[in-house]
């Protein structure tokens, strides 16, 4: 966040959700608590509400994403909003300020919230600075920087499975350097009181020393997950995997892939997480992905609940701000 | 269907609809009866209901299709479901099991039914084998193998126009060998008691001898439609038509195109059907497509009704299975 | 419109909206009045209704358009309609009459209104001639010929800002020759009684002498906007701008770009309009686009209201025609 910009309103409620940086423990816990009310058992009618009745949510995703787009769309619709989907590369349109013209145009059509995914760092804040006071910007992913709803759903899943955050050792494994998932998970978990966060990566995927304050760094996966309560695997980035030789992928799997044998080094009650989509056989072995310690599908279910919670919070905060 | 897999539940109700093979006459007639209740006169408010209130239907079409996709979408929405559309080539994603990961991800977001069109034979069953007990898979077209809702809408249209199936001669004309439409129509009509089914095709488009048991085979269109009550023309497949020379298309029209003169050989009350989209001037002459014997648009209207009936049946069956 | 075709029904109400040509002042004023009821303040719940409950609106746009498509979609949804979006190049499909087959197919699925944007002049009328009596065709833009809802929203914006049309001088500036926006604005304003319409363009962008009867023509922007009450800037067409050298764009801006200095020649109360999307720094300077005289975002808001008004008018007229 730049100086002079806040995603909070005067009451300390969210006006936007662009990053988890700067959000306090109480606010995160309130969002998790609210998300719990939006979870429901698969096979039952999903949790619904009419908190967003009359709202229009515009989903603007420059990067393709089946899961995150669908998750936001369902979260919006199940709270009663109308949704419009727009496929557009916002950052490439940003020449001559046309990005903001697009936003202003949709705002004039009474869009209440913009869910934006874009590869340009800072774009979400730029939009948030220029929308009307009643309009919210929600990040669905920002470059390598931030993915706040992913961080929240990871935290919710850990809380559900572990009962809290106080005594946990959480290992995040993979391309930490380029991962917005890792950054938002680290931020959420540090704020919520996880005492031990470990990052595990080969040297070229390790973040700069200035980042991840307080985290322990490991180059060895075996040592990094030893005794961990939570093992969070990251996706080997598609753009890297494409250029990679099969031998490279095999080498990555050998050194940083989570197998059942490796997982045995973690706490016996450890849970395995992955933000999806998985490269099976690369960063995670199929039997681990589908095994009893995996909570990967629960993460997806929690994703809808967390997004409903964020949208409902934004709507309530707006109602309270209204004169 | 592979051994050990059934699309029916313990009560003999549909859990999925992947093929018409193995479905009994009573079940087909019940679906047609239910579909009748969902038909309505164009210009009046279309039949609606709330049988799917709270449901989420995911439409995953790997092959482009304006009409079938729209038909399923409208059928779902008019019964109160939320719909998410996903353009994705499922079969090409099937490496490393990521097809199932995509399905599981959407299922975790509480998708209740998947409508899938794909060019890979067997993919629908593969998905159906892996979804949760409350989730249904509906085929919107499977390779050259099966198109069950098309077979049902064809049967419904014939029953509406002819009052029944008992004394009919039905001629199916065109590229039978590669046609899922023909296979599903043949299955529906044979089950429903049509005594005479004829398949009419040039030798290279004729199916193997093991298929279409009981059907009479004709290479001559004139003889094949002589005295028929129903003439069902197939679309000359686009992928073939593209490579085809104009002279080939002209030759096909000369030998297998339905003209008014040829139609005169059929029963004077014969109806003309086509699954669409039509290649006018190739497999069917425009004046026949738009003539008084054509029921092609009625097929489209029945398509929505049949899909509503299938979805409503699936929802009812699920409710009865629930503890 | 061709001889023998009318977009009005026997009562003089709209059956279609393809052009503003031939529509009387009373009808236009009624549409504007109705649109006023559908405007609402950004930040409040947008105007809604259930006039279109049970309707299905199909949006078929061959040309990409974020804003007009979203505007029609939101107008439809906020009046209670179901919407299906179809991306298809209608005119290129028009071979062998497949355009009409597509329309008839959707009509058989009980689509009540088609919103069509296409680059082929005459296509909208061709469709309107062939739909069922209860079905409406609404133009979302037709080649260089017509953009009737844009003309209505421009008129509504002028009336709101100026209190009427009687004493106004309106200057339309830019590529008049290729602009459907200019044609529809001219038609609306001439019918509604604007006494002085000026068109301002370089010679190669000036329309033929037979068009724009009664309008004053200017090659000089300075003289053309002198004393004007309304300055309506047109977008420099993208297909032209792409081929254009930066020097050409700079020259266009120098000669025909609206700057603050130039705007000072207009009436001090003059409003500045633009149909969007803007080429900032080409036809309009950023400080003018965002300045106090700009009503560009209000045009967008009025666009939704006007489209709601047109849809509601069509639905009412249909109900009155029904036996």
What brief labels describe this structure?
homotrimer, 323 residues, alpha/beta, Rossmann fold, five-stranded parallel beta sheet, four-stranded parallel beta sheet, 40% helix
Question: How would you portray this structure in words?
Answer:
Three copies of one chain form a homotrimer. The first copy, chain A, has twelve helices and nine strands. The longest helix of chain A has 26 residues, at 296-321. In chain A, helix 1 packs across helix 12 (296-321) and helix 2 (66-78) packs across helix 12 (296-321). Chain A has helices at 25-38, 66-78, 98-108, 123-130, 148-162, 180-192, 221-225, 238-243, 246-256, 260-263, 286-289, 296-321, and strands spanning 56-61, 82-87, 113-118, 136-142, 169-173, 196-200, 216-218, 230-233, 271-273. Chain A has 323 residues and is α/β, with parallel strands linked by helices. Helix content of chain A is 40%, strand content 14%. Chain A has two domains: 25-146 and 301-321, 3-Layer(aba) Sandwich (Rossmann fold), CATH 3.40.50.1370; 148-297, 3-Layer(aba) Sandwich (Rossmann fold). Chain A starts with 24 loop residues before the first helix and ends with a helix. The interface between A and C is medium-sized, with 23 and 27 residues.
């Amino acid at each position: 966040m730049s100086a002079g910009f806040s995603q909070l309103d005067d009451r300390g409620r969210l006006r936007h959700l662009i990053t988890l940086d700067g959000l306090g423990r109480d606010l995160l816990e309130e969002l998790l608590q609210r998300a719990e009310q939006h979870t429901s058992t698969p096979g039952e009618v999903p949790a619904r509400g009419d908190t967003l009745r009359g709202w229009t949510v515009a989903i603007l995703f420059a990067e393709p994403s089946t899961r995150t787009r669908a998750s936001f769309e369902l979260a919006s619709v199940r709270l009663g909003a109308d949704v419009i989907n727009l496929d557009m590369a916002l950052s490439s349109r940003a020449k001559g300020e046309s990005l903001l013209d697009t936003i202003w145009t949709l705002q004039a059509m009474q869009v209440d919230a913009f869910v934006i995914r874009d590869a340009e760092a800072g774009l979400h804040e730029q939009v948030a600075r220029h929308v009307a006071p009643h309009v919210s910007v929600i990040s669905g992913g920002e470059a390598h920087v931030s993915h706040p709803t992913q961080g929240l759903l990871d935290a919710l899943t850990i809380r559900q499975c572990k009962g809290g955050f106080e005594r946990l050792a959480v290992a995040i494994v993979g391309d930490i350097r380029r991962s917005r998932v890792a950054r938002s998970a680290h931020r959420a978990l540090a704020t919520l009181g996880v005492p031990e966060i470990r990052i595990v990566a080969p040297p070229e995927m390790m973040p700069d020393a200035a980042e991840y304050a307080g985290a322990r760094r490991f180059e060895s996966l075996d040592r990094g997950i030893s005794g961990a309560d939570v093992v969070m695997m990251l996706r080997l980035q598609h753009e890297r995997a494409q250029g990679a030789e099969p031998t490279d992928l095999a080498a990555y799997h050998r050194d940083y892939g989570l197998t059942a044998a490796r997982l045995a080094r973690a706490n016996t009650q450890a849970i395995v997480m992955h933000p999806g989509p998985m490269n099976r056989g690369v960063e995670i072995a199929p039997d681990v992905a589908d095994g009893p310690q995996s909570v990967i599908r629960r993460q997806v279910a929690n994703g809808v609940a967390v997004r409903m919670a964020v949208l409902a919070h934004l709507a309530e905060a707006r109602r309270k701000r209204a004169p």
